[in-house]
Amino acid sequence: xxxxxxxxxxxxxxxxxxxxxxxxxxxxxxxxxxxxxxxxxxxxxxxxxxxxxxxxxxxxxxxxxxxxxxxxxxxxxxxxxxxxxxxxxxxxxxxxxxxxxxxxxxxxxxxxxxxxxxxxxxxxxxxxxxxxxxxxxxxxxxxxxxxxxxxxxxxxxxxxxxxxxxxxxxxxxxxxxxxxxxxxxxxxxxxxxxxxxxxxxxxxxxxxxxxxxxxxx
Length: 217
Description:
About 45% of the residues lie in helices and about 20% in strands. It contains 10 helices and 8 strands. Helix 9 (about 190-205) packs antiparallel against helix 10 (about 210-215). The longest helix has 16 residues, at about 190-205.
């Protein structure tokens, strides 16, 4: 399990609590937190790996530090729902999945019709082979290494990797990856969703990710 962090003390406890009891190594790839992130990580038995700030570099550093043959990447503001460990174990056990990857069903920690609409839109995007990093990513180390791992990008590192994996090799697992609604509280679901879609479109048009990171905020 690899979790990138940067001043994630507000959300990391819930993410780690959802992993309690699971027999997996947890690597916190930290980009220089100055809050209680590292204290929280160590209290939960996680191993901390220092990394260059930026989600792409942090995920790559965490993968290098992890010891297992399978890698599960998870955002610090996402907590996995009931049944996640069993779903992961079943996926890993199947020899047919050795050259495949999986993400979880997206859910957001908000009430209301707008939130459910957002989840439906993400489900549609996932069926097209574009799950984002907030849905987690389960991938064998051999396939991860063959694809070159996460690129050194401040944003869209998840899109870059899943596009190399390809739609035919991606499975969406049923347990939810419940993402914190904090970002949507600040900007609103419609505004944040529109900004995300704009960033994705500009990325496909070739706009450099470092410029997109300024727009994303």
